[in-house]
Amino acid sequence: MIIDHPLVWRWLGAAEGASGMAASRSGGGRAGGQMEIEPVKSTRIYEEIVRQVKRLIAEGKLKSGDRLPPERDLVEEFMVSRTAVREALRALEGSGLIDVRAGEGAFVRDVSVESLIESLALVILPHREAVKELFEARRLLEPAIAGLAAGRATREEIAEMERILEEQHKEVLQGRTGVVQDTALHSAIAHSAHNRAITRIVSALMDLLTQSREESLHTPGRPTRSHADHRRILEAIQRRDAVAAHRSMLDHLIAVETLVTSAQGLDRRDAPAHRKKRSTKS
Q1: Mean pLDDT per segment of 10 residues, for the chain of length 282 residues?
Q2: How far is it, in rounded angstroms, from Cα 181 to Cα 152?
């Protein structure tokens, strides 16, 4: 069943009083509660509309198959021209987030992992806590992935990791950061878990953290420490020791996070009580 998602409900009146009207709209009842959108202030109007729609998708308020309100309602709610709305819809369609069907309307498509994370980045990256949240995601994912790699990596994949580590070692000896090899190793470990969703997620997270990771590798002594951490992770994978691989990856991520958040004036201990992390020796 096609769901006509209520991006805008003010035109239906109060949310409670609109339930009868909502049920009569094609596709059935409301998919969720009233959502808040912001009047557009950007000089490039259509880009602001795109940003807000992406945010709604990232937050799960617009789901695959949901239908956006009619063009005239978007014009009224965003307080923009029809031209701006049409440009925004074209941009969203071009990015693969919506499907515009003649005579039917605009529908949210089944989005890829990459598109979803890109949209999520638009929500969290402007905020001060963004880097901490991305590192938290890495701490939840990558140690478990390293554990999977210890059991699933082929000989060829382990050999490729060894090659990447050798290249990183040469880069570090020549006084460079080795950031390319750093990224390549984490991607290779994710790939060796043999789960395409995991590979895409790790790749997207690494892309989002590129700047902060590069900054951390410019800290004196950090490239050498990073290479040593990677060596311990790879040795655990080679031994097929999932527990050690998990532990080594977690230690590595905590060390990098501490360095980055300290440089940016953040503190991992500022996280809410329900986010308390395990203490480790660095």
Answers
A1: 40 36 39 55 73 80 88 91 91 84 88 57 54 83 95 96 95 88 90 87 74 69 90 97 97 87 56 40 37
A2: 22
Burial class, 190, CB count within 10 angstroms (exposed 0-12 / middle 13-18 / buried 19+): buried
Report the 10 Å Cβ neighbour count for 266. Answer: 19
128-275 to CATH, choices 3.30.460.80, 1.20.120.530, 1.20.1250.20, 2.40.30.10: 1.20.120.530
| Structure-token pair, residue 181 | 């090899």
Contact (CB, 8 A) for 44 and 91: no
CB 217 within 8 A of CB 223: yes
Residue 5 token pair: 């998602």
* Per-residue pLDDT, 114: 56
Tokens for 30, please give them. 């409301």
Per-residue model confidence (pLDDT) at position 235: 97
Question: Are 29 and 12 within 8 A, CB to CB?
Answer: no
In the block, residue with structure tokens 């991305």: 134
Token pair of 200 as six digits: 């895409």
Specify the CATH architecture of the domain 3-116.
Orthogonal Bundle (1.10)
